[in-house]
Amino acid sequence: MLTDTIQVRYKHAATSPEDILADCDGSLFPDETRNQHGDPDAVVTYRSTQFGDITLSIADPASEESRKLFAHSLWNAGIYLSGLISERSSDSRWSVVDETVLELGAGVGLCGIISALSGAKEVVISDYPATEILTNLRGNVSNNVGKDSISSVHVQGHEWGCFNDEFSNAHRHSFGRVLAADCLWMPQEHDNLIKSIDFFLKSSLNARAFVVAGFHTGRAKVAPFFEKAEAAGFEIELEEVDVDDEKRPWQPERDGGMESVTERKRWLVVASLRRRGRRNGVIP
Hints:
It contains 10 helices and 13 strands. By secondary structure, it is α/β, with parallel strands linked by helices. The chain has an 8-stranded mixed β-sheet, with helices on both faces. The N and C termini lie far apart (44 Å).
């Protein structure tokens, strides 16, 4: 099971009923899939079959605005995407080897860290420009990326859809891979996320954006992103996968919109986006 790769350890002993339940491995509620891992008092370990244990601290957002972004957790979408670009790297569609990689909405930075360890040429790990989130990301990179690769990994604040800064001016169409894990739960931000993908993704035949998202907040919040991305000029390959790696075709709605929360938490949508309208491998 996907969640078997995760261990959560609290810095202080869990004493409240809420902390004890949060720290359990799912055995108390065997039908309930845990899709969110960690809080600011926790250290999360991702057990990679290829790179060993990746230990991740969780940010403690200072402002209510930052806290609402839920950058202080690791979600199943990030775990699955990390697996796609590492353990399953024999499937070349998901390869980041020798690529320039940008992670959007990075949270704890797992996908960007795994990209660096998997042979990416350069990695930028980005999230909302809140000091506590970026400081935590830098610590996670420092603790998990070796000296041989650390100089090619950078942490950068980026608010989706905003490009009036030095980083954006220097990196338009610079990344062969753009990663976004569990970034679709805010429908009001879909347009801005698409703008950022479009702005930073290379204008080339092989450039891809990898987007993975859970349904825990409902399909109705996730599905419009793909309609908007197609309207913005992207071709999309997508399917659904559950925590046991069972796959099925993508559907924007299931069970007449009455899909249970328990069922939704088991499933992810996995998508690869590329540009339409190529001529000789380059966007006109």
